[in-house]
Amino acid sequence: MNASPQAAPSGEFRKGWKVLLAALLGTACGSSPLPFQTAGFMMGPIQQEFGWSLKQLSFGVTIYGVLGALLAPAFGALADRFGVRRVALGSLTAFGLAFGAFGLMPPSLLGYYFMWFLIGLVGIGSTPITWSRAVNLWFFRNRGLALGLTLVGTSISAILLPPLTVGLIAQFGWRGAYPALALLPLAIALPVGLAFFREPRPEERPSELNAIGADGKVALGGLTLRECLAGRRFWILGVSIFLVSFAYGGALVHMPMMLKGKGFEPAQAAGVMSLFGVSIFAGRIITGLLLDRLWAPLVTLPILSLPAVACFLLAGDQLSFGVAVACAFMLGFASGAETDLIAFLAGRYFGMANYGRIYGSLYMVFGIASALSPLAYGWVRDSTGSYDGILFTAAAFFVAGGLLLLALGRYPPLNAPPGMAPMPVFREA
Question: What DSSP line would sit under 53-103, residue for residue?
């Protein structure tokens, strides 16, 4: 491989900060955090108005998550082929319009499910599938930190959305809250994305990402999706993602209902939920810095043990405000580590030539697990009158997911398949 001299680490941020800002805001206002961060607060007013069960309400989130997850590889492939700018900004626009239209939902359970279906159909391109591809192409030596900063967007959402959602519901009702929240993607993230978000040209990319193909042209190295599916690392990572995402997704969505069942007022619950954002922020930045310096699975194992402790503390009939805050911090810190790791390891183990397809496939696992999880939490609560059973299961899943990552082994050589053989697959830039 021929490569130009490496740029200084600070040069990556000097060249890529505008794209990083656009990716951060796109992540914060996209379809990854908004539905999940607001659903728990919308469930109460919607249940009060229509009388639907928590299981029925949770199934809407499941429809959105499963459909979006199934479409993730397709959106990733579109980003690989046509570039992330068109895919990300087009999806962000469509998601904002669909999310705002939730306020027009008819008083029908089928109508409720259709709105979630619509969000899943158009919104998945406004998730880290697209934003992280661009960041991975602008950064290499500071990739962990850059991805952490990008995904800090979900931390910002987690901090601001709970009190904002509660306030909007109190002021305008749940129907008015949805279009007000839709202004976040449409009026904040979209204009910045139109101004700044793009992929780098070959000469702007970090030299570590560039190789010379057989035809003498600069190309990106990496595996095809088929080659990934034939190797063990993809499946190890996929199972770990499923376990941790299943454990976490329902805990986030149902946390307000857990707190309500233990006597917390809505304002108190919103305060606790805001701690998710602070802890996710800390988890992303600290984990990102460590990923650039240490072996990623070793970094992640102790972090994923924290939410297992939180799940045990959340079980039972009594919960003090201080313990609830500690649980929120532990869950959020671990979430920041896990989601950063998916994007980091997809690029580090499998290369960038087909990153969208590969990451989209891993995100499909993440999305399906996150979608099934709230349904499972709601079903256990409706069936047993308690969240304890699913919380104990989630604790085991967190630890198992962290242990599995240790089987990934050492990073493969740059631009080579995980088998360590120097046989890069090239794709024209």
Answer: -HHHHHHHHHHHHHHHHHHHHHHHHHHHHH-HHHHHHHHHHHHHHHHHGGG
CA distance 145 to 344: 10
One-letter amino acid at 169 equals I
Angle at CA 304, nearest 5°, toward 302 and 309?
A: 95
The β-bridge partners of 15 are none
Separation between Cα atoms, residue 182 and residue 101, nearest integer Å: 9
**Nearest-angstrom CA–CA distance, 234 and 358:** 9
In this predicted structure, the answer to whether residue 158 has a pLDDT above a threshold of 70 is: yes
pLDDT digits (tens, 9 = 90+) for 8-51: 556 888 888 999 999 999 999 999 889 988 888 898 899 888 88
Which phi and psi angles does 210 have, rounded to 5°?
Answer: -95, 135
pTM, to two decimals = 0.74
Q: Are 92 and 126 in contact (CB under 8 A)?
A: yes
Q: Six-digit token pair at 272?
A: 């606790």
Give all domains of the chain, ordered by start, each with its CATH number.
9-428 (1.20.1250.20)
Using a 10 angstrom Cβ sphere, with 0-12 exposed, 13-18 middle and 19 or more buried, the burial of residue 309 is: middle
The pLDDT-based confidence of 255 (bands split at 50, 70, 90) is confident
In tens, the pLDDT along 93-105 reads 999 999 999 989 8
**What percent of the chain stands above pLDDT 90?**
30
| Residues 147 and 332: beta-carbon distance below 8 Å | no
Mean pLDDT value of segment 76-96 = 92
User: Whose structure tokens read 């917390």?
Assistant: 264
Which tens digit of pLDDT belongs to each residue from 295-329?
888 888 888 888 999 998 988 777 888 888 888 88
By the 8 A CB rule, do 75 and 87 touch? yes
Are 341 and 114 in contact by the 8 Å Cβ rule? The answer is no
User: Of the candidates 65, 49, 151, which has an alpha carbon nearest to the alpha carbon of residue 109?
Assistant: 49
**Residue with structure tokens 């580590």?**
337
CA proximity to 425, closest of 229, 207, 223: 223
If 0-12 CB within 10 Å is exposed, 13-18 middle and 19+ buried, where does residue 236 land?
middle
